[in-house]
Write a structure and sequence with these properties.
The protein is an alpha/beta fold and 1803 residues long. The strands form 13 sheets. Strands 1, 2, 3, 6, 7, 8, 9, 10, 11 and 12 form a 10-stranded mixed β-sheet that branches. Strands 15-21-14-22-23-13-24 form a 7-stranded parallel β-sheet, with helices on both faces. Helix 39 links the parallel strand 25 (1152-1153) and strand 26 (1177-1178).
C-alpha cells in the first residue's frame, strides 16, 4: 500500500514538472522564456570588443567575449567670447542660425541687478562680433557638431551592446536560480507551411559564465565557457513534431552527433573546427531535406525545409524543469524496483502513516530531550529557539522553523550544520535562490569550511570550491591517525567539561555576591546580619579595636594564637639571657676532627718518637699505598729465603751467572738434563739394580761395546746362532764383522753367563744406555757420579740437582718481577738476593708509612684550625687550639661537648627569631607594641576579638569590591568565549574523525580520490589541449565518486536536481532555507533524506509558477493524489512551508531580530507578526549618531503610465536615481550597499535601473551591489540602504493592496534594509482613503512613527517622596545626576526588543556610543531572577551592548570610586571637521546642511589626560619607513597585534607587540589587508578597528590556522600584486582590492586569491593610477594563473610595476624583518644633554605651559606622575624629539606643529 502511495506522489510531481517545461520553438517570440538574445555577429566589430567569431580574436584567451565600455565623446562647445560678452550673452542664441545672437536684459553682479541699457558699449561689442566673427564661429561649431554626432552615433551603437551585456550580467546575478546563460550554435530555421509551427532554435548549446570587471578608468564584461560545461544537444523543440520529423531520425541524429563529439573530444562549440561537421551531420540525418550552411549571421528569411546555420547567439533563458523531470523519473524507477515493503519514513506522514518518535543523533541513548551534560555543538552564539530545534530533531524526523526577516536563519543553520557534522551526519542545505545560501559557508568556523561545498551554481568558483574541499579531505586522509583524533577529542572534551564547571562556579559566585548583599548572613561568629547591619556594628566597634592596626584576619588560623603567646614568653625570656654567644659563629663539628682522630694522632706521634729516633737519616719513599708496598717487600724477602734453602752447593754462583747474562746457557743445560733424565726414567732401575749384573772388558769403551752389541744382536735376529754346535761348525765361515766381535761373547758376562742370546744382548744394550745418560748428566752439571753401584741412587742424585735448579730459576724470575713491581710502585731499587739490603728497605718503609699517618693527622688538625680562623668564631676556639697543641684528646672532648650545647642554644634562639619574623610579618604593628611593652600576655584575649573584627571588615569590603565582581564577570565572559572555541574545535575534530573513519573503511572511495588527484595533476597548467580535455573528463568522472567524501553540501534546489543521483535516505539531514519560496517540487527532498529541517516564513514571498495556473493542476491532483491527505496543498497556491505545517509536529519561531533598525522592522512586526502572537524582538545595537532609519521623499509631480506589471512612475523613478546619485558622493554612505524595490509591477524597476546606469555608471552600480527589482528579487538578501518606490500616483486607478500575497511583498520589501530605508511616494495619506491598504499603512508608518525614547541631560533635584518617572529608584536618579554632570546624556528605563528587556539606564556619548547601566539595589528576588538578569545581559552583550553595573551600598560608600570604571568606558574622540548631514527634505530635493561637531571628549577628561594627550598626539612611525605623511595626517590609533591573536588599540603609545601599525586619519575610511601564506586575504574596515575601545584586550585578531606574512594598510581601493613560485618558476599576478569582500572580523579566513599550487608568496600594494598601464597583468578572476616574471612580452609592465612599488606606498609591514629600534648615543662630557633617566623641564609654545618629564625605558601610563614629574617612554615622540638636546634648544614634537623649548636638564 505504501509503495503505491509513494508512486502516486512522484507521478504527480513528474506531471507537475512537465507542465512547467513546455518546449520553446521560436526564441524570438518567447520573451518570457528567452528574455535576452545577443547574436554574436550583431556585436559591432570594434577594437574595444573581442569576439571569438572574429578572425583577429586570440584563441589563447580564456574567454569568448570581452566587451569594454566605450567612452562617450565630449560634445563640442561654442567658441569662447570675451569675458564681458560671456557674462551677458544668451548662450542659446549663439547657435540659432535663423536669428542673430542676443544679450540678457538684466544680470546680477555682486548682489546688484544690472541692466544692459546701462552698458551700450557691450551692445556695440556684440554688434562688432556678429559682423566680424560670428558666422565663422557658427560654421566651425556646426562642423564640430557634425563630427560629434557621427562619433556619438558610433558610441551609441557600441554602448547598446555593452548595456545589453551588462543587463544580462545583472539578471544572472539577481536571478541565477531562474535563468541560465548559454551560447547556442547550429540554428535550426524551419517552417514547413502556414499550419505548422515555426522553428528557430539552436541545436547545440554550451553553458557560459559572465563577469563584470572594472577599475577607475575602465570596465569590461567577460563571457567565458563554464568550467564544467560541454556542448549539449537540444531537440526538445522538434521531438514532438511528428508531422514534420520522424522521431527516430531525431534520435538517430542526436546519437550520431553525441558519438561524434565524444570521439573527436569536442569540448567547445567555438574552438574546435569539428563542430561544424557535427552540425552538418545532424542536419543531414534529422531530415532528408535538411542542410547546413556555415554562416555566422542570423537568418533573414524563414526556410521551408530544415536548415541549420552556425549563427552563434548568447542567450539568457529561463531554466527548464527537465532536470526535475529526470530526477522524478529516477526516483520512480527506484521505488518501482524496490520491494513491496519499501518504507520511506520521511514521506509516511504525507501519505497518512504517522511514524513514532525517532532516536537521538548518536547511537548511545534514545533520550528525547537534551540532557544537562549533553554537548550541543554550536560554535556560534545561540538562543533558546536553536536549542528547541535540536530537541525537536531528536524526537522527530521533520522539524518546522519559522524564521521572520533578520532573525538569524543563516546563523542558526550554521550552528545546526556544525552540530550535525560533529555527530557524523551527511547534510544538504538548500533553498530556492542562491542568495539565501551565499553567506552560509562564511558563517561556519574555518575548521568546518573544508567539509562543506558551496555548489551555488555551475560557475568556476563553485567547481573550485568542490575541488578545494575534496583536496583538503584527501590531504587530511593521507596524514590522519584515528588514535590521535580520539586522543584529541577526549582532550577537548575534558577541557570543555572543566570550562563548563568554571562557568558554573563563577555564575554561582556571582549569585552568592548578589544574595549576600541582601540577605542575613553570618560572616563569622561575632558578626552576622545584613551587610548594612554588619557595617553599622563594625563602625560602632571601630573605637574598641583602634589598637589593632594590622591586616591579618584569618579566623581559621589557630596557630597564630599559639605563636603569638610563645613569642611573648620567649621575648621576655631572652630579655634576661646573654645572647652574645649566639652572635658568634659556632664551630662546625663537621669540619673538626673526632676525638678518636686526635687520640690516633697522639698514638702515632708517640710510636714515631719511640722507634725511629735512633737513626738520624732516613730515605724518603714516594708511595701512595705503603701497606701494599710492605706486602710486596715481604713477598720479595720470602723469595730470597727460598733461594738460600735450596739443596745445591752452587746456588750463589748460579744466581750470579744467571742474573748477569748466562741464563741461556743454564736453560740449555736444564733442557738437556731433562732429556737425559727422561731417557733413564723408562727403565725400571730398581729391577736393574736388583736382577742384573754385567761385566765388561776393561779395554773397550761403552760406545764400542754398544756398537758391537747392536751388530751381534742384528746377526742373532737374522737367525744366526752365536752358540752351540751349529755355531761351532760355521764359526770359521762367519763374516769378518762378526768374527771381529766374537770377543763380546766371551768377555761380556750377563749375570755370569756369556752374552750370546737376544735377551742378553738387549739387557746389555739397556745397561750401556743407562750408563751413557748418567755420564751425560755428570758432564752437564759438572758433578762426579756418586760412588755407588746403584743406578737408582745415581739417577736420584742428578734428578734432585735438576729439580733444585728449576726452582732456583723460578725464584730468580719471579723475584725479578717483584723487584720491578716495587720499583714501579715506589721508585725503590732492591739489590737481588741481598737480604740485609732488603731488611733495611722494609724498615724504612715502615718509617715512611708511620710518618705519612702522622702528617695526615696534622692536615686534619690544620684544616680544623683554618675553619676556626674566622674572627667571628666563638672564643671556644682558643681551647680547641690548646687541645690540638697538647694533643690532648680529653680536653678536646670537653670542647666538643661545649659546642653541642652552644648549637642547641643557638637553634632555640634562631627558632625564636623565625617566630619573631613571622609575627613581625603578619602583625607588624602588634609586634612593635610588644617590643615596647604595649601588648603583653595579659592582652592575648583581645587579640582573638580583633581578628574577628578585621575578618568581618575584609569580608564586607570583598562583597563591596566591584573589582572582584568585574573579575568574576570577566572570567565568566572569557570562559564563555573559551567554551565556544572548544565546542568548535571538538565539533570539528569529531566531524573530521567521522569523515576520515568512513573513508578509511571505504577502499573504493579512497581509490577514486587518488585517481581524481592524479587526473587533476595531468590536466597541466594551461588546461587546454586534447590531453588536458581527456584528463579533465577523467577528473570529472572521478569527482562524481569523490563527492561522497564531502559530508555537507550547500546547493540551490535546481542545482540539487541537476547534480545528484537520487537514492533513498542518501542524506542524514536536509535543511531547507526560505522554504516559503518552494512549492511541491521540494517534496523529493523527503525521499533523499532521513530527516529534514524546514526553515521558512509564510509571511514572505511564496513560490511563483509562471505559465502554470492553479486550475490546470486540479485534474492532475485528482488523477494522481487520490487518497493522499491534504492533496489540495500540492497545488501552486501553497508553498512547501505551508504544506509542512500538516506533517510537522508544531513550529519553532525565531523571534530575535538582528538585521534592521528597530524603527524599520517595527512595520513588519506590527502588521504581520505581532497580530499572530509571534512578535519580533529587535536587538540591533546602534549608535545614536546613526543614519535616520526612515526617510520619505514626496514626488508631487509623479504620475503613472501603463498598467499591471508594466506600470511605471517616471518622475518617481527620476527622483530615486537623483537621490542615489547624491548619496554615492556622501561620505556617510561610503561602502554602503543599495537596493531598489518597486512595490507594484516590474517595469518600474527596469526604468530605475536604466536611469541609475546613466547617472552613476556601471562601476558604482556594481560596487554598491545595486539590484533593482521587486520583493522576490530580494528574498533572502539584504542591503544597507533600501529605496522603495510606491509607484501609485493621483492619476492611477488603483485598488487597495490587502491580499496575503501583497502582505508578503511589503514585508519582504521593508525588511531588507539594514540601516535606512527611503520611501518615494507620489500620493499622500489623504489620497489613500482605505486605511487597510498596505500603501496607507506603509506611508503612515514612515510619516507618524516616533519610537524615540526621551533623552535627558539636565540634573534632577532630589526631593522627599518617591522618585520621578520613569526612574525606578532614587538610586537611579543619583547615578543619572552624576552622568549629566559630566556633560553627557542618558535615557532611563531604556527598552530593548520592544520592552522584552529593560535597561535601568543608557548613557549616551557625543559620538553616539551607548553604555547600558544597571543599578543593583538591595532588593533580592531570588537566584532564578538573578540568573535571568545574567542571561539578559549575556543576550544583549551578544548584540553589541556594553554593560556597567553599580551596586547601591558601594555607590553610597564611595561614589567617586564606584563610578570610576564607568568613566573609563567612555571612548576618547578627536576633534573633527563638521561633516555634512542631511536634514529633512522638501517635496522634491534633499537639502544638506552642516552639523556642528560634537563636543570633544576632553571636556570630561582630567587635566593630566588632556596635557598628556597633547604631548603624545603624534607618535613615531613604527615599521613604516615607506609611509609618507603630511601635516594634515593625524595619528588616530595604534593597532597592536600579537601572534596569539590578541590585539589592542592604543592611543598614546604603541605596545611591544608582534605587529604594530599606526593608523593615521587619512586611513580612517580605508582597509586593513591581512595577507596569509595560504593565498587568502582578509580585508577589514579600518572603521571597525577605530570603533574598538582604547586599551581593551580583544581576541581573534588573526586567523590562527594560517600564517600571517603581510599586513597592508590602504586608504582606498588599490591593486594587490602577488609574487609566487610555481614549480620553480617565479610568477606574478595582480587583482583589484575592490573585488575582495570587506569584512568586520579580523579572524576570518579571508578571500581566496590563489587557486593554484604554489611554494611561496609575497604581496605588494600597487597604486590604482597605473591600472591602465599594467592592465594585462590585472585579473578579474582569482583563479588566474599569473605570468612568469621573466616573460619579456610584459617588459613594459614589469618596468612600471618596479618603478611604482619602489616609491612611497601605504603602510606595509614585512614580518620577516625586525623593526629597527631607536639607538641612543652617549652625550658629550662637556654638554648637559638629554639622555636616558634625564629629568627635563620643557615649555610648550602653543600654550606656554611647562612640564617636567623623565625619560624611562619602561612602559608608562599617560597620567602617571610622581613628585610632579611625568614619566615618558623613550620611544614616545616627545622623548625622541628632545633626546640629545641641550638647554635652550627648541624642537618640534614628531610630525606635529607643537614646539617645546628645553628649560632645564637634570641628569
Amino acid at each position: 500500500m505504501k509503495k503505491e502511495k509513494y508512486l502516486q506522489i512522484f507521478n504527480y510531481l513528474k506531471e507537475f514538472s512537465k507542465l512547467r517545461s513546455n518546449p520553446v520553438r521560436d526564441i524570438e517570440v518567447q520573451e518570457t522564456q528567452y528574455p535576452e538574445k545577443l547574436w554574436l555577429n550583431d556585436i559591432p566589430n570594434n577594437k574595444l570588443f573581442e569576439n571569438i567569431i572574429r578572425p583577429e580574436f586570440n584563441t589563447d584567451n580564456d574567454y569568448w567575449l570581452k566587451i569594454r565600455k566605450p567612452k562617450e565623446p565630449t560634445k563640442p562647445v561654442f567658441s569662447q567670447l570675451s569675458e564681458t560678452l560671456e557674462l551677458w550673452i544668451n548662450k542659446e542664441s549663439l547657435t540659432d542660425e535663423e536669428d542673430e545672437p542676443t544679450l540678457k536684459k538684466q544680470i546680477e553682479i555682486d548682489g546688484n541687478i544690472r541692466s544692459i541699457e546701462d552698458f551700450p558699449e557691450i551692445v556695440q561689442e556684440l554688434k562688432d562680433y556678429v559682423e566680424k566673427k560670428w558666422i565663422d564661429d557658427i560654421i566651425e561649431y556646426n562642423e564640430k557638431i557634425e563630427i560629434y554626432e557621427k562619433k556619438y552615433a558610433e558610441f551609441e551603437h557600441l554602448n547598446n551592446s555593452y548595456k545589453q551585456l551588462f543587463r544580462i550580467f545583472n539578471k544572472t546575478q539577481q536571478f541565477g536560480e531562474e535563468y541560465e546563460l548559454v551560447i547556442g550554435v547550429g540554428l535550426l530555421n524551419f517552417k514547413e507551411n502556414n499550419d505548422s509551427p515555426k522553428i528557430l532554435r539552436h541545436i547545440l548549446t554550451q553553458r557560459i559564465d559572465i563577469n563584470f570587471e572594472y577599475s577607475k578608468k575602465d570596465s569590461h564584461i567577460l563571457v567565458s565557457p563554464n568550467i564544467e560545461s560541454l556542448p549539449q544537444i537540444e531537440t526538445d523543440s522538434i521531438i514532438d513534431l511528428f508531422d514534420q520529423f520522424d522521431s527516430q531520425n531525431i534520435i538517430d541524429a542526436e546519437r550520431a552527433v553525441e558519438k561524434y563529439i565524444t570521439e573527436k573530444n569536442i569540448d567547445s562549440i567555438f574552438t574546435d573546427s569539428n563542430i561544424e561537421d557535427a552540425l552538418q551531420m545532424f542536419a543531414e540525418r534529422v531530415s532528408a531535406d535538411g542542410n547546413y550552411i556555415s554562416s555566422i549571421n542570423k537568418p533573414i528569411a524563414i526556410s521551408s525545409k530544415p536548415q541549420i546555420s552556425y549563427s552563434p547567439c548568447l542567450i539568457l533563458r529561463k531554466r527548464n524543469t527537465r532536470s526535475f523531470t529526470a530526477l522524478y523519473e529516477k526516483i520512480l524507477g527506484n521505488i518501482e524496483d524496490a520491494e513491496e515493503e519499501i518504507n520511506i519514513s520521511s514521506i509516511n506522514d504525507l501519505i497518512g502513516i504517522h511514524s513514532e518518535n525517532k532516536v537521538d543523533f548518536s547511537d548511545e541513548e534514545n533520550s528525547n530531550s537534551i540532557s544537562q551534560n549533553e554537548v550541543i555543538y554550536f560554535p556560534k552564539e545561540y538562543n533558546d529557539e536553536q536549542i528547541e530545534i535540536i530537541e525537536k530533531a531528536k524526537r522527530n524526523n521533520k522539524v518546522l522553523v519559522q524564521g521572520p526577516p533578520g532573525t538569524g536563519k543563516s546563523h542558526t543553520i550554521a550552528n545546526l550544520i556544525c552540530h550535525l557534522l560533529a555527530n557524523g551526519k551527511k547534510v544538504l542545505i538548500t533553498a530556492y535562490t542562491k542568495r539565501a545560501l551565499e553567506v552560509l559557508k562564511d558563517k561556519l568556523p574555518s575548521e568546518f569550511q573544508d567539509l562543506t561545498v558551496n555548489l551555488l551554481s555551475g560557475d568556476s568558483s563553485s567547481i573550485q570550491d568542490l575541488q578545494s574541499s575534496v583536496n583538503s579531505i584527501n590531504d587530511e586522509l593521507s596524514r590522519a591517525n584515528l588514535n590521535t583524533y580520539q586522543t584529541e577529542i577526549e582532550d577537548f572534551g575534558n577541557k570543555l567539561k572543566r570550562t563548563k564547571e568554571k562557568i558554573a562556579s563563577n555564575t554561582n559566585e556571582l549569585v552568592k555576591i548578589k544574595e549576600k548583599a541582601t540577605r542575613n548572613q553570618e560572616i563569622n561568629l561575632n558578626y552576622s546580619g545584613t551587610l548594612t547591619q554588619i557595617a553599622e556594628n563594625l563602625e560602632k566597634e571601630t573605637e574598641n579595636f583602634e589598637w589593632y592596626k594590622d591586616d591579618f584576619s584569618d579566623i581559621n588560623n589557630e596557630q597564630i594564637h599559639i605563636d603569638l603567646q610563645n613569642y611573648i614568653d620567649l621575648h621576655q625570656n631572652y630579655l634576661n639571657v646573654d645572647i652574645t654567644d649566639f652572635e658568634y659563629e659556632i664551630p662546625n663539628t663537621e669540619k673538626l676532627p673526632t676525638v678518636n682522630q686526635v687520640q690516633e694522632y697522639k698514638d702515632l706521634a708517640n710510636e714515631l718518637l719511640q722507634y725511629y729516633t735512633s737513626k738520624e737519616n732516613h730515605i724518603i719513599i714516594q708511595c701512595s699505598d705503603f701497606e701494599k708496598l710492605k706486602i710486596l717487600l715481604k713477598q720479595l724477602r720470602e723469595y730470597y729465603k727460598q733461594s738460600d734453602n735450596l739443596q745445591i752447593d752452587f746456588t750463589e754462583n748460579f744466581r750470579n751467572t744467571y742474573i748477569n747474562g748466562n741464563s741461556n746457557k743454564w736453560n740449555q743445560t736444564l733442557k738437556y738434563s731433562a732429556e737425559a733424565l727422561e731417557k733413564i726414567k723408562k727403565y725400571n732401575l730398581r729391577e736393574v739394580d736388583k736382577n742384573v749384573e754385567i761385566s765388561y772388558p776393561s779395554k773397550k769403551s761403552l760406545k764400542q761395546l754398544k756398537k758391537d752389541a747392536k751388530t751381534l744382536l742384528e746377526h742373532l735376529k737374522n737367525g744366526n746362532p752365536l752358540s752351540g754346535f751349529t755355531f761351532t761348525l760355521k764359526k770359521a765361515f762367519l763374516p769378518k764383522e762378526i768374527k771381529e766381535r766374537l770377543y763380546f761373547i766371551d768377555e761380556v758376562r750377563v749375570n755370569g753367563s756369556p752374552c750370546d742370546t737376544i735377551e742378553e744382548f738387549e739387557i746389555v744394550l739397556n745397561d750401556i744406555s743407562i750408563q751413557q745418560n748418567i755420564n751425560e748428566l755428570s758432564e752437564l752439571w759438572n758433578k762426579e757420579i756418586p760412588q755407588t753401584e746403584s743406578y737408582l741412587k745415581r739417577f736420584n742424585y742428578f734428578q734432585n740437582i735438576h729439580s733444585e735448579v728449576t726452582k732456583l730459576i723460578t725464584i730468580i724470575n719471579e723475584s725479578g718481577q717483584k723487584r720491578k713491581e716495587i720499583k714501579d710502585f715506589s721508585e725503590l731499587y732492591v739489590t737481588p738476593f741481598d737480604i740485609e739490603n732488603l731488611e733495611d728497605i722494609i724498615n724504612e718503609t715502615e718509617y715512611n708509612h708511620l710518618l705519612q699517618k702522622v702528617n695526615s693527622c696534622k692536615v686534619i688538625i690544620k684544616n680544623a684550625e683554618v675553619s676556626l680562623s674566622n674572627p667571628n668564631c666563638h672564643p671556644i676556639k682558643e681551647k680547641i687550639f690548646e687541645a690540638f697543641k697538647q694533643i690532648d684528646s680529653n680536653a678536646y672532648h670537653k670542647c666538643l661537648n661545649q659546642i653541642d650545647a652552644l648549637n642547641n642554644g643557638k637553634d632555640d634562639f634562631q627558632a625564636f627569631l623565625r617566630l619573631k619574623e613571622n609575627i613581625q610579618k603578619r602583625l607588624p604593628n602588634l609586634f612593635d607594641s610588644i617590643q615596647v611593652g604595649g601588648f603583653t600576655a595579659q592582652d592575648l584575649y583581645k587579640f582573638e576579638l580583633a581578628i574577628y573584627f578585621r575578618h568581618a571588615q575584609k569580608e564586607i569590603n570583598k562583597l563591596m569590591n566591584v573589582d572582584y565582581e568585574q573579575e568574576l564577570r570577566y572570567n565568566l565572559h572569557q570562559s564563555e568565549v573559551k567554551k565556544g572555541k572548544l565546542i568548535a574545535k571538538l565539533a570539528a575534530k569529531k566531524a573530521w574523525f567521522k569523515v576520515v573513519e568512513n573513508l578509511q573503511q571505504n577502499r573504493s572511495l579512497r581509490q577514486h580520490l587518488d585517481a581524481w588527484v592524479m587526473a587533476v595533476k595531468k590536466i597541466g597548467k594551461t588546461g587546454r589541449g586534447k590531453r588536458a580535455m581527456k584528463f579533465r573528463k577523467i577528473a570529472q568522472q572521478e569527482m562524481e565518486h569523490c563527492k561522497n567524501s564531502v559530508p555537507c553540501w550547500i546547493m540551490p534546489l535546481y542545482k540539487v536536481a541537476e547534480t545528484i543521483q537520487p537514492e533513498q535516505e542518501m542524506y542524514d539531514y536536509v535543511i531547507i532555507d526560505e522554504a516559503s519560496q518552494l512549492g511541491p517540487d521540494a517534496i523529493f527532498l523527503l525521499y533523499i533524506t532521513k530527516n529534514i529541517i524546514i526553515v521558512g516564513d509564510d509571511k514572505q514571498t511564496s513560490p511563483e509558477y509562471v505559465g502554470v495556473s492553479a486550475n490546470s493542476m486540479t485534474p492532475h491532483i485528482q488523477r494522481h493524489l487520490n487518497g493522499i491527505p491534504f492533496s489540495d496543498y500540492y497545488g501552486t497556491e501553497f508553498s512547501f512551508f505551508d504544506h509542512a505545517k500538516f506533517f510537522c509536529d508544531g513550529m519553532t519561531v525565531l523571534q530575535e531580530h538582528f538585521r534592521c533598525m528597530p524603527e524599520i522592522i517595527e512595520f513588519s512586526n506590527k502588521h504581520f507578526y505581532a497580530p499572530d502572537g509571534k512578535g519580533l524582538y529587535p536587538l540591533k545595537q546602534y549608535s545614536e549618531n546613526r543614519l535616520e532609519p526612515l526617510k520619505t521623499i514626496f514626488c508631487a509631480k509623479g504620475y503613472t503610465e501603463g498598467r499591471g506589471a508594466r506600470i511605471i512612475n517616471e518622475p518617481e523613478a527620476n527622483e530615486i536615481a537623483l537621490t542615489i546619485s547624491k548619496l554615492v558622493d556622501d561620505n556617510r554612505y561610503n561602502d554602503k550597499t543599495f537596493g531598489v524595490i518597486t512595490l507594484q509591477g516590474n517595469q518600474q524597476a527596469s526604468l530605475i535601473e536604466n536611469l541609475l546606469l546613466k547617472t552613476i555608471g556601471e562601476q558604482e552600480y556594481h560596487k554598491r551591489k545595486i539590484v533593482c527589482g521587486n520583493s522576490a528579487s530580494f528574498q533572502g538578501d539584504e542591503r544597507d540602504i533600501i529605496f522603495l518606490s510606491l509607484v501609485t500616483a493621483h492619476n492611477h486607478n488603483r485598488s487597495a493592496l490587502v491580499k496575503p500575497e501583497d502582505e508578503r511583498r511589503f514585508n519582504v520589501a521593508v525588511s531588507r534594509a539594514i540601516e535606512q530605508i527611503y520611501l518615494f511616494h507620489s500620493v499622500q495619506l489623504d489620497d489613500l482613503s482605505n486605511t487597510n491598504d498596505l500603501r496607507y499603512k506603509l506611508l503612515d508608518h514612515f510619516k507618524n512613527h516616533n519610537p524615540q525614547q526621551i533623552i535627558l541631560n539636565s540634573p534632577i533635584e532630589r526631593n522627599i517622596g518617591t522618585q520621578p518617572d520613569p526612574f525606578d529608584s532614587w538610586f537611579e536618579v543619583d547615578v543619572y545626576n552624576d552622568i549629566v554632570r559630566k556633560n553627557l546624556s542618558a535615557i532611563p528605563q531604556y527598552e530593548v526588543a520592544k520592552g522584552r528587556y529593560i535597561i535601568d539606564m543608557v548613557m549616551l556619548h557625543p559620538d553616539g556610543t551607548k553604555i547600558a547601566i544597571e543599578c543593583d539595589g538591595d532588593r533580592w528576588h531570588g537566584p532564578e531572577q538573578y540568573q535571568n538578569d545574567i542571561m539578559r545581559q549575556k543576550v544583549l552583550e551578544r548584540c553589541g551592548w556594553q554593560f556597567f553595573r553599580v551596586r547601591g551600598y558601594e555607590y553610597y560608600t564611595n561614589r567617586i570610586k564606584a563610578l570610576e570604571p564607568l568613566w573609563k568606558l567612555i571612548p576618547k574622540i578627536d576633534k573633527k571637521e563638521p561633516i555634512p548631514n542631511p536634514e529633512k527634505e522638501n517635496e522634491h530635493t534633499i537639502e544638506v546642511q552642516n552639523e556642528q561637531a560634537t563636543k570633544s571628549a576632553n571636556e570630561i577628561l582630567s587635566e593630566e589626560e588632556v596635557l598628556e594627550e597633547e604631548i603624545q598626539r603624534v607618535k613615531p612611525n613604527i615599521a613604516q619607513s615607506d609611509i609618507s605623511t603630511n601635516d594634515s595626517e593625524i595619528l588616530l590609533r595604534y593597532f597592536n597585534l600579537y601572534k596569539s591573536g590578541i590585539y589592542l588599540m592604543t592611543e598614546d603609545e604603541p605596545l611591544v607587540a608582534d605587529y604594530v601599525i599606526p593608523i593615521n586619519s587619512n586611513y580612517k575610511n580605508g582597509y586593513l589587508l591581512q595577507c596569509y601564506k595560504s593565498g587568502h586575504i582578509n580585508k577589514v574596515f579600518i572603521s571597525t578597528l577605530l570603533s574598538k575601545r582604547i586599551g581593551k584586550e580583544y581576541m581573534n585578531g588573526l586567523n590562527k590556522n594560517d600564517e600571517l606574512i603581510n599586513l597592508e594598510l590602504i586608504d582606498s581601493e588599490k591593486i594587490i600584486g602577488i609574487y609566487f613560485n610555481e614549480n620553480g618558476s617565479r610568477k606574478f599576478k595582480a587583482h583589484l582590492t575592490e573585488n575582495i569582500s570587506s569584512r568586520e572580523q579580523l579572524h576570518l579566513q579571508g578571500y581566496k586569491v590563489m587557486y593554484m599550487d604554489f611554494e611561496s608568496i609575497d604581496y605588494k600594494i600597487i597604486p590604482l593610477e597605473i591600472l591602465d598601464d599594467i592592465n594585462r597583468l590585472v585579473f578579474q578572476s582569482f583563479t588566474a594563473n599569473g605570468k612568469p616574471i621573466d616573460n619579456n612580452y610584459y617588459n613594459t609592465e614589469w618596468s612600471i610595476i618596479k618603478s611604482n612599488t619602489s616609491k612611497d606606498l601605504p603602510t606595509e609591514i614585512n614580518f620577516k624583518e625586525e623593526v629597527e629600534q631607536i639607538k641612543f648615543e652617549t652625550p658629550s662630557l662637556f654638554d648637559s644633554r638629554v639622555e636616558l633617566n634625564s629629568i627635563v623641564e620643557i615649555k610648550y609654545f602653543n600654550n606656554n605651559k611647562t612640564l617636567k618629564v623623565k625619560l624611562v625605558e619602561s612602559q608608562t601610563k599617560t597620567t602617571t606622575k610622581q613628585n610632579g614629574i611625568q614619566s615618558i617612554n623613550t620611544k614616545s615622540p616627545l622623548a625622541l624629539s628632545i633626546f640629545g638636546k641641550i638647554v635652550g634648544d627648541i624642537v618640534k614634537i614628531g610630525t606635529s606643529e607643537n614646539k617645546v623649548e628645553i628649560i632645564k636638564i637634570e641628569n
